[in-house]
């Protein structure tokens, strides 16, 4: 079975895709059957992934040389594209994680989506998403990966706009699609450049060739290519300045937010950079850009999350912030730390989103955390699991987030980036604060009489409990004392760094202070935020309005893009249409109307002209003699 | 005088005759308003050409009959042309109740 799973890993994306097809064409009228098909396919994918992961994580040879098999997709002279599977510890981990989280979220969705219109369609989309994401994970070829990349983008669009009767959902879907498309343009250009320079898009071959890139190109070009490739992840993983779509993506159903916009799809960008890390390591400037983008995004998004009021929006900014951590880890050159954080984040963020979904269901989609309160009494499972997620993201040991965040922090410091370390540490503090602000406001404090919350059914709470368990223990695979993770998922040599107790203690202290401050401000003294907001009104307004990034983009669109469009429109109307199209027409028409007076329509006029013409020829011949006659007839004798 | 005149009838006389005939025909074809008259004038022009052909045959290539054969061709074609022309005129007359060329201006803009 292990052998079979490893050599048939392509079944993992194929099964959800078949589920999608089956639901769309066959089982759509039967809601429960559709859900079962979808969940069944994903669960089967999970079983195969688990076996494959077991196989991968027991054979050491796969660390250095991944298991690859492929079939030819198409070929042209100089362009050979394969679709294939690249199975190494990183992709095996991702397969396992994605199928696991997706299965849990799909089970949860059965409860969450009950009674919604388009129940079957929802599961069809979820399956299609799963198929695309898993294909992206196992791709051995960048073009194959790009197809899957666009596939997850499409599913994201469809699922954000799932409640398409709401204008805001439609707008958010469009925004996500367009924003990512801008980024994908860069990625596509980067891929083109790679194909042109290195003549291949196979990731393994690229790795070998880029290791000796001087044979093909110079460092400046490769830096440019790396930056272009990085544009794609900036969009997909919601890095500044293309993060704007991710908070709006919360218009979709909550399981979508959990699966796509927290646990799996948004980490695709991180995964891509991780896959191409060999390229970024060759060009320090590009790597620096990744690190700075990551650290800045982490801090930036965390600061916005401080003032937001909608529960899912806070989680969305938290996701952006955590993605920034992962990028930072890659930027300081550590695939291990980045993938580790990706792994733990998937569990605790999916958990928190699903718990938020449970809250929203109970409160009939009232999303403002200030209107919640005391929910833990009525919803103990949801509250407790959310708190587990909160502890994990705040970096309290032994929860999962602590280990991965600690690894990123210590690597940033030991890599010689004190500024980035400071930003990351500050972010850790802010994260603990805003997340526990949410928890204290929503689950503790006074109950609001107008709310009548009820604990969700087991189909929703069981996935929560499983995810909470994973958030608790998921990090133990990579503790500094037992670095199982780093031994397997790594790029280059395995460094067993000694545990850095200073950083560890610092991050715990930051987390505890954050939680403590949140406790003081939102449980002890509820009006504290009000007073702080009054005191620092401009800062508060700036943060509450998300640094006005959306407004800046709107202004940019309305003045520059629309202005340019208007100029182009006028150019089109007056120059292209006016001079070229209508001008040529007018010349023809006017010439015609001038010449038509010669067309009298009287035969005898025409005959007279014939005669005059013949006369003229005769006169010319008579004057010039016979020699030019030869010329007149073109020399024909 | 009469004698010398009668003796000197040469190609020039034929050409002058045919030119006059052609000129009359041309004038008529261009100036006449009646379509039948125009057809008649075209016949005049064709016959002027025939005179030319026969005259050149006699004076330039007396041993070959090229010109005469051409003249017979022209007469044949002229007969056909008159047949077609008259048929057209009748057809137009049925339509317009007129054989005046001034009325035949359908091609006009």
Show the helix and strand layout:
The complex is a heterodimer of chains A (637) and B (109).
Chain A: H1 2-7, H2 11-27, H3 31-56, H4 61-64, E1 67-76, E2 79-87, H5 89-112, H6 119-138, H7 142-160, H8 167-198, H9 203-211, H10 219-236, H11 245-248, H12 254-263, H13 267-275, H14 277-282, H15 284-305, H16 311-331, H17 335-362, H18 375-378, H19 380-394, H20 400-414, H21 418-443, H22 458-473, H23 484-488, H24 501-524, H25 528-535, H26 537-544, H27 549-595, H28 603-624, H29 626-632
Antiparallel strand pairs in A: 1-2
Helix pairs in contact in A: 2-3, 2-6, 3-5, 3-6, 5-6, 5-12, 5-17, 5-22, 6-7, 7-8, 7-12, 8-10, 10-13, 10-15, 12-17, 13-16, 13-17, 15-16, 15-21, 16-17, 16-20, 16-21, 17-19, 17-20, 17-22, 19-21, 19-22, 20-21, 20-24, 21-24, 25-26
Chain B: H1 2-7, H2 11-31, H3 35-59, H4 66-96
Please state roughly what percent of the residues of chain B sit in beta strands, choosing from under 5%, 5-15%, 15-25%, 25-35%, 35-45% or over 45%. under 5%
Element-level helix/strand string of chain B: HHHH
C-alpha Rg of chain A (nearest Å): 32 Å
Number of strands of chain B: 0
- Share of β-strand residues of chain A: under 5%
Tally of extended strands of chain A?
2
> How many H/I helical runs of chain A?
29
Seen as an oligomer or otherwise, the chain set is heterodimer
Instruction: Give the overall form of chain B.
Output: elongated
> What's the pLDDT, averaged over the residues of chain B?
86
Query: What structural class do the secondary elements of chain B suggest?
Result: mainly alpha
**Biggest β-sheet strands, sense, barrel of chain B:** none
User: Can you identify the CATH class of chain B?
Assistant: Mainly Alpha
